[in-house]
Design a protein that fits this description.
128 residues, alpha+beta, Nuclear Transport Factor 2, Chain: A, six-stranded mixed β-sheet, 3 helices, 6 strands
Length: 128
């Protein structure tokens, strides 16, 4: 019984650590303006908001939209300011991306799909 509890605790810690790595990896992709790397963490369909344009895209369409966005808004920095989770097991990160042209508030929602945490919602909103 004790081994089962230890094994369960270990599995939980490993799962939490891998979930944290995904948020860090997504943040690094945003910081570097790497649309291809960022899209690799997307759910097959993702709700994407860029400035005031909001739509649901396939993973590949979202990558193209982000490539265009990053080419005209090259990130100079990205910082995660707040993280949290909801009762359905999803997690979110709120951060700030700086570019030469201005600042963007970034909202990322991660959902666990078949045991894998993926980006379901991504928003880049102009900071005021």
């Amino acid at each position: 019984m004790r081994k089962l509890i230890l094994l369960s605790a270990f599995a939980l810690v490993v799962n939490l650590l891998s979930a944290q790595d995904i948020a860090v990896d997504v943040g690094n992709a945003i910081k570097s303006g790497n649309a291809k790397q960022l899209a690799s963490y997307f759910h097959p369909t993702v709700d994407l908001t860029v400035k005031q344009n909001e739509a649901t895209y396939s993973k590949s369409q979202a990558e193209q939209v982000l490539q265009s966005f990053f080419s005209s808004n090259k990130p100079t920095s990205y910082k995660s300011n707040h993280t949290g989770s909801s009762s359905d097991g999803s997690r979110y990160v709120i951060g700030k991306m700086e570019t030469a042209g201005g600042s963007f508030r970034v909202y990322i929602l991660f959902k666990n799909i078949s045991g894998k945490e993926l980006v379901q919602i991504l928003r880049f909103e102009v900071s005021e």
